[in-house]
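Ligand: S-adenosylmethionine. Inputs:
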Amino acid sequence: MPIPKVRSTTRRVPPPTGTRNRPAAGGTYARTEPIRPRRIRNRTFTTARPIGRLRPADHPTAHRSGTHRRHERPRHRHRCGDVAVIAADLVGPSGHVLAVDRSPEALGGARRRLGHRQEIEFAEADLTTLDLDRQFDAIVGRAVLMHVSSPVEVLERLSRHLRPGGLMVMHEFDLTQQWTSVSTPLWDRVRTLILQTFESIGIHNTLGRDLFAAFRSAGLPDPHLTLGAPVGGGAEAPSFGWVNVLAGLLPYLEQQGIVTADEIGIDSLTQRLTDELDAEDATLLGPLMYGAYCTVG
Ligand SMILES: C[S@@+](CC[C@H](N)C(=O)[O-])C[C@H]1O[C@@H](n2cnc3c(N)ncnc32)[C@H](O)[C@@H]1O
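Predicted complex:
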């Protein structure tokens, strides 16, 4: 089934007046086992952006507990090329990173920011049909497989581009966990809007927890797994991240006649959601980011 294109919005949710952006510091991005970058020698193929040293600020709903005060804007959100930069730092100046994305807009932004990084090559390509005549030491992707109709087929296809001993690394979300420790009306509405919309446009909401099975189905060795998520309560509740996800879906929601920015009150939504949590002394969990990695024989 073709996935309708949802253009990511350029709309930014402004922090309420009287708040200031602060530099990021600290964080609670948990990883149960570190991915060993030493396996990556000199050629890395990144599916848009990847790898082991992914930091919370790279999280698409970037919000580290203890990092941003409520209402504050994360330093950055999705930026095509972020994972490529991490990979490029790992392989070093004599290495090579091929950064792939099917979106010309995403690649254009990355090329403008990273044009000076000689070791990174950008390619506009669809992973579902990608066929290269080269092999790589590592293939890394983040929040990409969730967009394709058959993640297993893409994993199979990608694994053909790994040299023996090469490393396959995928990071994907599970969005379906209970977000708040106490159920509240506005949070329930936002959660339902986001999950139902993703489901209706063909995004795999549970791929993170399904990565293990996907690796097996693709004929890959059992992957090691990692898990991380923003979490917090009160002033540290990562509400902003979820609001940004919703803001990104608004053009589609408006086009479908489901809800408008004004109806949902997008500009004050972070504040109202945080207040609702506060009133219940509740904890908020951001998207669960699973990592899965293995080496091929
Ligand atoms: C949620 S963003 C994740 C971006 C980045 N990996 C990150 O972690 O911040 C998903 C990206 O995957 C790209 N994408 C989705 N399906 C794709 C496909 N079949 N082939 C190549 N790129 C794809 C989109 O264009 C988009 O830039």
